[in-house]
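Quick start: load a record and inspect it. Here is Peptidoglycan-binding domain-containing protein:
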Amino acid sequence: MGSSSTRDLAGTFRHAVEDYIYAMTDAGIDVSIDATYRPVKRSYLMHWSWRIVNDGLDASRIPTLAGVDIEWEHPTKAESIKSASDMVAALSIRRLRTRPALRSQHNFGLAIDMAISWNGTVFVKDARGTLVRIDTMPRTGMNRQLIAVAASDGVKKDYGGNKDVPLWSNNGR
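Running the structure step on this input writes:
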């Protein structure tokens, strides 16, 4: 299992994220945390199951990972795909638009996945305590003004565009 608690984030990044989330919620922005810390074994399962389902990867080509007892290859290709599809659903990554990383900042407690939304214009405090008027679209975590506020706190938006919309980290990856 992974975590969706900011308590499982590392050091100063944890404090930066908590400050940023506080500033957003104080401004009336809805924030829903999906994931913070992710064990390497979970990343492995996410990566390879998604690849079988979405990239058509041959299950027999998947390398093993110590401590993960799984048979990717089944008697037929259809059965391998069905089992991988079941895992993709169980791991809640069916709608993910990009291949999950084998290793990511999540493995070090340096990333967070959040759904962010609001209505109308909001005023969010940046790290210096300055109120920033956010009145542009979209009203999601992809808003450029909100991304700038986050950067002032040391929380950087994934720079992969719309592929990994909920991802924020210490380095934008």
